[in-house]
Amino acid sequence: MPTGWARATIGGVVELNPRSFTSEPANDDLVSFVPMAAVEAESDRLDSSISRHWKDVSKGYTRFQEADILFAKITPCMENGKVAVARGLIGGRGAGSTEFHVLRPTQAVCSQLLMYFVLQLEVRRAARMKMKGAAGQLRVPPEFLRDYAFDVPPRPEQDRIVQKIEEQFTRLDAAVAALKRVRISLKRYRAAVLKAACEGRLVPTEAELARNDGRSYETGEELLSRVLKERRTKWEADQLAKMVSCGKAPQTDDWRNKYKEPDPPETDSLASLPTGWKWASIDQIAECLDGRRVPVNKNERARRSGSVPYYGANARVGWIDDFLFDEPLVLVVEDETFVGRTLPFSYLITGKSWVNNHAHVLRPTGAVTSEFLNYSLAFYPFTPLTTGSTGRRKLTQKALLQAQYPLPPIAEQVRIATEIERVLSVADEIDSDLQKNMERAKRLRQSILKRAFEGKLVPQDPRDEPAAALLERIRTEQLAESAQRCTHKPKQKQAKTVAMEVS
Question: 167, 190, 268, 321 — which has fewest CB within 10 A?
Answer without folding.
Answer: 268
